[in-house]
Structure formats: structure tokens, C-alpha cells
Write a structure and sequence with these properties.
Elements lengths: L3 H15 L4 E6 L10 H8 L4 E7 L2 E6 L3 E5 L4 E7 L8 E7 L3 E7 L5 E5 L3 H4 L13 H9 L5 H6 L9 H10 L13 H20 L36 E5 L2 E5 L10
Length: 269
Amino acid sequence: MPELPEVETIARKLDPILAGSQILSVDLRWNRSLVDLAPAEFTRQLCGQTIRSVSRRGKFLCLQLSYDQLLFHLRMSGDLDVKEGAYLPEKHDRLVLGLSGGRSMVFNDTRKFGRIWLTTDPSQVLGALGPEPLSDGFTSQVLLDMLHHRHRQLKPLLLDQTFLAGLGNIYTDEALHIARLHPCRVSDSLTGQQVDDLWQAIRGVLEEGIRRNGASIDWVYRGGDFQNHFRVYGRAGQACPVCGTMIERILVSQRGTHFCPNCQPGKDG
């Protein structure tokens, strides 16, 4: 699933291309991708609007239109791209928007889990999301207060989008390794220094992921190379780059989790 760096990479690529484009036609090819709006109404409302900007909130792509916001959640296999010239839809395309300038914006989603919203009030979709981990307001003290007000294992808590927006399996495993914290460590047991280490690790690994255009580990991610710099994720049985201990893979809340048993000591710290 695309995480914050992958979605941010897509948004940064699309914004200068799409800004100012008018939507001339709507071809919704999989009605179930659409949430809370009838296909005919979706088409009627969307046609004629201009795309003002493309941004990101958590793992959502947010297209600011003339009057509404068009939101995409890519889920497992979704991808958003722009095609130049005449475009013939492909098998897994779920939405094709014909744009001014002879371009098409295409939402392709092989597994059909991705979702689309058209709304005048994006808070109805995004309002439950937690803080943005790269925002100025997300400080080490804020994270400490958040962690100490909960009694949960770190890995599932960091994956909870209502707690913190944008993290998924990859960047959570990487951040916990950098911070030398076991994924099953209980959130309210962390010291102030450990919280600060985790805060720095989260921001650092996300910034590095964005710098490297995300991780290209599936057919839907384009051009990133962060996968070549993973410390633990997907490296079970290989040597930890810090200490040489073999990296292990365990299940934490039914999620595959990679960690170094030497660098990240037992869950009780």
C-alpha cells in the first residue's frame, strides 16, 4: 500500500501538471470505487470544474477543484497518472477524466480496493485523521503526550491513522529500528528520550523516503528507490546493517513486522 512518501511523491508530480486543467469528460469504469455519490451525480458535478491544486493528507490524494474536493485513497494497488494525447482505457482503469490540453487523468486499481470521494466538505472524509508527522505542530512533546495517553503496542498504534496520519508497515518498521524500540513496546512505557528518538526517526525516515521518491516494491509505484535502503523491512534472515544480527519477522496484530532483536530489545525495554 502506498504510504506517506509514495503519496506525497505522486502529489508533487501531479500538481504542476494538473493545476489549471479543466475536466471535460468523466468515464467512471468501476462504480464501486465511488463513495457516497451516485455515478450520474458524480459525473454531473465533476464535469466543467477546474483542478486548482493537488496535495496530500495522510495517505489521501486531494484534488482541489473549482467548487469541490476530489479525494482518492489508493489502498493496496491504486495509482493516479496523467496520459498525454488520445488515451484508450486499460483493463484495470477505474476512472478516466478527459482534461483540457488533450490529456487524461487515469485512476488505475488492479485489486479494486481504492476509493474516490467528491465532496464540498473534505473534513467528513479526513476529519478523523491524526496529525501530519512532518507538520510544524507535530513536536516531540506532542508525540509524548499522545503516547502516554494510550496503553497500546507501538507498531499497531503507529499504524492507526486516527493516531498519526500516513505511516504504514514500511516506514513504521524502519522508524522503530532507527529509534531502537521493539514493535511490541507499550506506548506509555517510553521515556522522554525514547519518545524524542522515535519522533526524530519517524520524521527522518519519511523525509528520506520522500527524497528518494518513495519505495518501488510493486508495479504501482513509479521511480522510487527507497527499497534499496531498507534497514529491516522485508529483510528477514539478513544481517542488521547496524549490528549484524539476523533480522526477524513476527506478526504483530496480524501485520508482518521486521525488527532486529539486538538493536530493538524486548517489548518491556
